[in-house]
UniProtKB/TrEMBL annotation:
Gene3D superfamilies: Tetratricopeptide repeat domain (1.25.40.10). Pfam families: TPR_16 (PF13432), TPR_8 (PF13181). It comes from the Bacteria. Transmembrane segments: none annotated. This is TPR domain protein. Residues 51-70, 348-371 are annotated as: Disordered. Keywords: Repeat, TPR repeat. The keyword Repeat applies. InterPro entries: TPR-like_helical_dom_sf, TPR_rpt, Ycf3. TPR repeats lie at residues 72-105, 140-173, 272-305.
Length: 371
């Protein structure tokens, strides 16, 4: 999700936020809805999608318990154990065996659907979600997953309705507040996202992820002082500190507190990243001289890695020449970003997507990550 605040053109003299992303965090109950990377074998998922049988003997296959229901329960428990060990491929195998042995059981289908959503396979997950809701229409976690699938398909109104229903059924489902706020962000309504996150924090005051997300909403609304407060709370509470530190740096830049912003950026990604981020901020805000100083230092510190810093430096030098009466500088595109050497205005909202909806998969420092 791209979360780029608008430039402040007021007469207050505050610095406009450049095309830099604010990174949104969310926490799911149970397993994290994020790209599983090397955790899940695509071939396993492909076998499931095409209806092919699973391997005959998954590791840790329990002994036969006498009845299909008992065997299914044993596979479910083994799957949950593998999930707790962060071994989703084996968990998926056991959840599938449980669902095959006892199709009437809700939990194996729900857990398998969650893993499929994590893997970016919403269409495959939808069948399990529909089966769960048919058997248990008041199942809050199933409605949450339905909302995640709807979001992936670009059906934002449907996703909003599903997340709202999940919260109504289970007000303690913390992850749903984050999802619902993200939908409002995607609809261009940070005011509604702010209200959702603020209400959630009353119930979950120790959630660093919600503090971070509320900070993003305040930044989008131009209230950088409030945003800074919540980014600080997120860091204190240990919510994905790299992203929260980065967000704090952006807020401090907008408040003109550049020394503190440098320290925040350095905490996020190191000294070279801090120089690059400040340089890019100055570049976009028209201070080419300071931009050159910081970007030059970023390249000196990481000459091979910071390709983006080098590109920013070239633009900053052109801008300096233009300021002195030279050639005009080419404008940066709206998606070029600049944080830590990679585009970052692709902040994380919901699970990896198929590319059909607003949640299209992104990679790099600003990839969609939900922890």
């Amino acid at each position: 999700m791209s979360i780029t605040a608008t430039h402040d053109t007021s007469s207050k003299g505050r610095h406009a936020l450049p095309a830099l992303a604010l990174l949104l965090l969310m926490t799911l109950s149970g397993c994290a809805a994020r790209d599983m990377g090397d955790g899940t074998s695509p071939s396993l998922m492909e076998r499931h999608a095409t209806g092919k049988s699973l391997a005959p003997d998954a590791p840790g296959t329990p002994q036969r318990q006498g009845t299909p229901a008992a065997e299914a329960e044993a596979h479910l428990q083994r799957g949950l154990a593998y999930l707790a060990q962060d071994r989703p491929e084996l968990a998926f195998e056991h959840f599938s065996r449980a669902a095959s042995l006892a199709p009437e059981m809700v939990e194996p289908r729900l857990q398998r659907a969650r893993l499929l959503v994590r893997r970016g396979m919403p269409n495959e997950a939808a069948a399990d979600i529909e089966a769960v809701l048919a058997a248990s229409p008041q199942h809050a976690r199933a409605w949450e997953l339905a909302g995640m699938v709807a979001f992936d398909r670009g059906l934002l109104d449907e996703a909003e309705a599903d997340f709202t229903r999940a919260i109504t059924l289970d007000p303690d489902l913390a992850s749903c507040y984050a999802h619902l706020g993200a939908v409002h962000d995607y609809k261009g309504r940070p005011d509604l996202a702010r209200d959702v996150y603020a209400a959630a924090l009353v119930r979950f005051p120790q959630s660093g992820e919600l503090h971070n997300n509320l900070g993003v909403a305040f930044s989008m609304l131009g209230d950088d002082a409030s945003a800074l407060h919540h980014f600080h709370e997120a860091v204190v509470l240990g919510a994905s500190s790299e992203r929260s530190w980065n967000n704090m740096g952006l807020a401090l830049c907008r408040l003109g507190r550049f020394d503190e912003a440098f320290e925040a950026f350095r905490n996020a990604g190191g000294e070279a990243a801090a120089h690059n981020n400040l340089g890019y901020f100055f570049l976009v805000n028209g201070d080419a001289s300071l931009a050159v100083q910081h970007l030059q230092r970023a390249v000196e510190l990481e000459p091979r890695y910071y390709v983006r810093a080098a590109e920013n430096l070239k633009r900053a030098r052109l801008a300096a020449r233009f300021a002195a009466g030279g050639v005009p500088v080419p404008a940066a595109g709206p998606q070029t970003g600049g944080i830590a050497g990679t585009p970052v205005n692709k902040a994380g909202v919901l699970p990896p997507a198929t590319g059909k909806g607003p949640g299209t998969r992104t990679t790099g420092a600003g990839e969609r990550v939900i922890q």
